[in-house]
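Suppose you are handed only these lines of text.
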Amino acid sequence: MSVYEDLSTFVQQGRVNNVKEIIAAELGKGTNAQALLQDGLLVGMAVIGEKFKNNQVYVPEVLIAARAMQAGIDVLAGALAAEKVESKGKVVLGTVKGDLHDIGKNLVKIMMESKGLDVIDLGVDVSADRFVNTAIEEGAQIIACSALLTTTMPVMKEVVDKANEKGVRDRIKIMVGGAPVTEEFKNKIGADYYSADASSASDIALQICQ
Ligand code: B1M
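From them, the structure of the protein bound to CO-5-methoxybenzimidazolylcobamide can be written out as follows.
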């Protein structure tokens, strides 16, 4: 089995220590961090996601797999992020109200920070008010919202409405993303940018701030 297959299997089995050990060893050998993420960790989580959909595994198994994946990302974080440079802009990031999924959001944070952006991470279950008020108070150029549930996507529209209400849409751009979110949905709610993955989200954020 390749190291990527091992990583995928250990994520599925929730074996935190094995995941951390493999990643640390591979980084030591100079293996590409993005490849360990894309071809190992994310593959394992995709398998679990598919099994969850088909009722072959349940929430506890998903949760332990998610912990193993997050542990792997934590070890990778240093390698994914470039050296901290002077701040190129400020982003207020979070997962929307009612939604507790944070692995993708955490990846977005790592990638944005690797581009020199200053990220204020509000965590999960973030209300529209909190997104907009924090962005105003902190002088952020971007609000970045993540949602993984179809039932929580409408909170993104609340963020757009709240920003309109406060009259800040000319200076604060709203980015949306997460598995169920699409370009079409972004257009429908009047947000500014959609991106399918963490890497393109960080590219767009950097363009906005430059
Ligand atoms: Co949940 N869950 N979950 N879950 N979970 C999904 C999302 C689901 C699709 C599974 C399924 O049925 N196949 C389904 C949603 C169905 C729907 O809405 N239509 C679902 C469900 C139903 C639920 C519960 C309701 C289950 C229950 O309790 N019965 C519950 C809800 C809890 C809540 O939030 N209120 C729940 C709970 C959980 C766990 C706690 C067990 C765990 C989360 C742990 C955690 O996040 N700390 C969990 C997990 C792990 C998943 C799956 C299996 C994996 C999600 C993940 O982390 N993927 C997921 C199935 C799936 O997505 N295939 C599922 C890896 C991550 C890197 O990808 O987050 O998509 P992702 O991020 C990507 C892109 O989307 C993008 O960048 C990343 C890649 O580079 N991206 C952005 C993300 N945010 C972005 C923001 C941007 C731009 C890009 O700009 C701002």
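What can we learn from it? The first strand starts at residue 90 and ends at 95. The mean pLDDT is 93.
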